[in-house]
Design goal:
It is a single chain. By secondary structure, the protein is α/β, with parallel strands linked by helices. Among the domains are: about 1-110, 3-Layer(aba) Sandwich (Rossmann fold); about 220-395, 3-Layer(aba) Sandwich (Rossmann fold), CATH 3.40.50.620. About 35% of the residues lie in helices and about 20% in strands. The protein has helices spanning about 10-25, 40-50, 65-75, 95-110, 145-155, 205-230, 245-255, 275-285, 300, 310-325, 340-345, 370-380, 405-415; strands at about 1-5, 30, 55-60, 80-85, 115, 120, 135-140, 160-165, 170-175, 180-185, 195, 235-240, 260-265, 290-295, 330, 350-355, 355-360. The protein has a 6-stranded mixed β-sheet with strand order 14-13-12-15-17-16, sandwiched between helices. Helix 7 (about 245-255) packs across helix 12 (about 370-380). It is globular and about 70 Å long.
């Protein structure tokens, strides 16, 4: 979670409007009290910096001298931050939608910005020069299995622990060390296509990645945990698929709350290896695991399609049926901005009305990247689901209509029989 900081109360009021309108009021908005010099605002700035939220300092063109004075203070605190001088005289002079666009772009910088110093290190200033877009994500191509799949299926060579920039429409740019080595289209409903490639690989060690990013990711984890503590009076339920995002969410929940229930809705056509992964990790984490088995009668409903995702309805109904048994439940879900524009545009807390009652869903890793999630899980001494080491970005069911051709090919390599067709999605 972020703390948006402005110089004067009127500027903070403009930010508060956006916070309420777009983020449900769950970011923090702070004023430096209206002072115009470092000495006049220092106490208020230090108070904000001592808090757990990630600071974003926004000043107007008239305040750029003050920004120069405050940057050393921000750097001294050692936590991730971002500071920007806007084009208008003051923050409050900027149009609301333009100011909101700045905030969205800055949020994306925190999860996408990279610097290269012999390894990939998160840095919102982004000296590495990755393309920053609020709907993009980054993740790591981890494991020898991922590299073998890229080589055998696409004839693309990757170095160890390559960085992947995932754009919209499942288009991915691969980096090995400092080198951009390939761009691959994994567009849903179309054959996987290598747009270009370069045989210039370089290895990056996992130890160096963890070392370079530990403090940055722990700062985000601290902010997420501070956000979660507002819900200590609830029954904590984590819908857990075994995927990286729900796993990171479960780890955070266990860090904060004494009692956590993980609900594993086990679909009939579950991804291989998920049962074993979930059961083993639940024991290591010491969380209560509730498993619900859901049949998927494709002989009755047919294969799921984009127009008829009856499988999703069954999964959601099974989840809410379990959640409704708790006295005061809150669901901690692993939704992230980088997954889709639809998820990015949701506030961090939503109220979900269902046939089983109205439930609160909160998203503690909403502002994280896949890169951050992967390293967070590994930093805590846990492994990721085995399919991530074979080339998967996301997990679902083996008959999911949202499986790309790339994922279908990976499942075929594992001998999975029942799979969706690779035809383009119908236009509705």
């Amino acid at each position: 979670m972020f703390a948006l900081i402005a110089r004067a109360r009127k500027d903070a009021k403009a930010l508060s409007y956006i916070n309420e309108r777009n983020y449900g009021g769950f970011l923090r908005v702070e004023s430096l009290g209206g002072g115009r010099t470092k000495e006049e605002v220092l106490e208020n700035l230090e108070r904000v910096l001592e808090g757990p939220y990630i600071p974003v300092l926004l000043l107007g063109e008239k305040e750029k001298d003050l920004m120069e004075e405050l940057l050393p203070v921000l750097r001294e605190y050692g936590k991730p931050f971002y500071a920007r001088v806007l084009r208008t005289k003051r923050v409050r002079n900027m149009r609301v939608d333009e100011l909101y666009a700045h905030i969205e772009e800055i949020k994306a910088r925190f999860r996408l910005g990279i610097e290269w110093n012999g390894t990939y290190a998160l840095n919102p200033e982004n000296p590495f020069g990755l393309e920053i877009n609020p709907d993009y994500d980054i993740y790591l191509a981890l494991g020898d299995g991922f590299r073998r799949a890229m080589r055998s299926l696409l004839d693309v060579e990757l170095g160890e622990n390559s960085l992947v920039l995932r754009k919209t429409m499942n288009q991915e740019v691969y980096y090995s060390g400092q080198n951009k080595v390939a761009e691959v289209s994994k567009k849903l409903g179309f054959p996987t296509e290598v747009l270009w490639k370069c045989p210039c690989t370089e290895d990056v060690s996992l130890d160096s990645l963890i070392s370079a990013n530990r403090e940055y990711i722990e700062a985000f984890a601290s902010a997420s945990k501070a956000f979660l503590r507002a819900f200590e009076d609830y029954d904590i339920v984590v819908p857990w698929s075994g995927g990286k995002d729900s796993t990171a969410t479960l780890i955070l929940a266990k860090d904060v709350f004494d009692e956590v229930t993980a609900v594993y809705v086990r679909m009939e056509y579950e991804m291989p290896g998920t049962d074993e992964y979930v059961e083993k990790l639940a024991k290591r984490l010491g969380v209560e695991l509730v498993r619900v088995d859901v049949p998927m009668p494709i002989e009755k409903y047919g294969m799921p399609t984009h127009q008829n995702r009856w499988c999703t309805r069954k999964k959601v109904e099974a989840l809410y049926s379990v959640v409704s048994e708790f006295e005061k439940p809150v669901l901690l879900v692993g939704d992230r901005d980088g997954e889709s524009a639809r998820r990015r545009l949701k506030p961090p807390v939503v109220e979900r009305k269902t046939d089983f009652g109205t439930f609160i869903e909160i998203m503690p890793i909403k502002f994280w990247s896949g890169f951050m999630v992967q390293l967070f899980v590994l930093m805590r001494g846990f492994k990721l689901h085995p399919l991530y080491y074979e080339g998967f970005y996301r997990l679902g069911c083996t008959i999911c209509p949202s499986l790309a051709d790339w994922e279908v090919k990976l499942l075929k390599r594992r001998g999975v029989g029942e799979l969706p067709s690779s035809s383009p999605p119908e236009q509705g």
